[in-house]
Every structure is written in C-alpha cells, then in structure tokens.
Specification:
Order of helices and strands: HHHHHHH
CATH superfamily of one domain: Homeodomain-like
Helix content: 55-70%
Radius of gyration: 28 Å
Largest sheet: none
Number of strands: 0
CATH class of one domain: Mainly Alpha
Number of helices: 7
CATH topology of one domain: Arc Repressor Mutant, subunit A
Distance between the termini: 71 Å
Structural class: mainly alpha
CATH architecture of one domain: Orthogonal Bundle
Strand content: under 5%
Shape: elongated
C-alpha cells in the first residue's frame, strides 16, 4: 500500500524543476514514491494559486526549451556527422514546436486576430438610406407587435 504523499516545499520544488527541464509530468510523478499521483497533483494545483502560477511558469520554461531545441536541430541539418536525414529532422522540429504551442499558447501558439475596420483603418461607418418616416414606421410596427 503506497505511503500518502506529503505536500512539502521540497517535493513541490523538485517536481517543478523537473517539469521545467523534462516536461512530462506523468513520468515525473511516477518516478518517485515521494511524489503524488496525478489526481492529487491536479488537486493541489487547483487549490493553490501560487503553485498554479509556478507550475505554469515551469511549463512555459519547458516550452521555451523545446523551441530552442527545435532551432538547434534545424540549424544542424547540414551537418553530416549528426547522421540525421531531412525527414527525421523535420519531424523532430515539428514535434517540439507543436509541444511548445500546447504548453504555452500565449508565447508559442498560432494566433489569429480578426479586425473589422473602416476606410484608412478608421471606424466602420453605418450608412442607411431610410427616411425618418420609414424609420418611424418600422419602430411603430415593432412596438405594436410586442403589445399583442
């Protein structure tokens, strides 16, 4: 029967350091009896804002490491002694970038921004061709339908 895990600063620091360097939380938690099960860890993170912030920071550090690794791999493509073929290198780079995107969307995620702007980047102008009488007739007709 497993010994209950105690939430100590040392255990938290060890786990967070490993997340920042290795990234795989499930593997990290399974690597020591001192570490909690995943469900326990998730509960700790949900209940503790400081731990949640530190965990996010550790994941962001790992994401940055993955991006750096992807660059190093891509930069080494032409080196024959590395023994890589272009297809393998492409997969390694894409996998690291994909993982970085999932771990830290704010810095490495693909972001789209849709803006509606008017002429020369100004506000959108609304133009209607109805007369005041036509507008009044429409407003009166809507008001009459709501009274029924």
């Amino acid at each position: 029967m497993p010994v209950p895990t105690k939430k100590t600063p040392d255990v938290l620091d060890e786990i967070l350091q490993q997340v920042a360097s290795e990234g795989n939380l499930d593997r990290i938690l399974a690597s020591s009896e001192r570490y909690p099960r995943r469900e326990t860890w998730d509960g700790w993170v949900k209940a503790d804002d400081d731990l949640a912030r530190r965990y996010l920071s550790a994941k962001q550090s790992y994401a940055a490491k993955l991006v750096f690794e992807a660059k190093e791999i891509a930069d080494g493509v032409g080196v024959s002694e590395a023994g890589y073929n272009d297809k393998k290198v492409g997969h390694q780079v894409k996998t690291r970038l994909w993982m970085a995107e999932k771990l830290d969307r704010s810095n490495f995620g693909l972001q789209q921004r849709l803006e509606h702007v008017g002429e020369d980047g100004g506000p959108i102008k609304t133009i209607h061709t109805l007369t005041d009488d036509e507008l009044m007739r429409i407003a009166t007709a809507k008001k009459g339908k709501g009274d029924e």
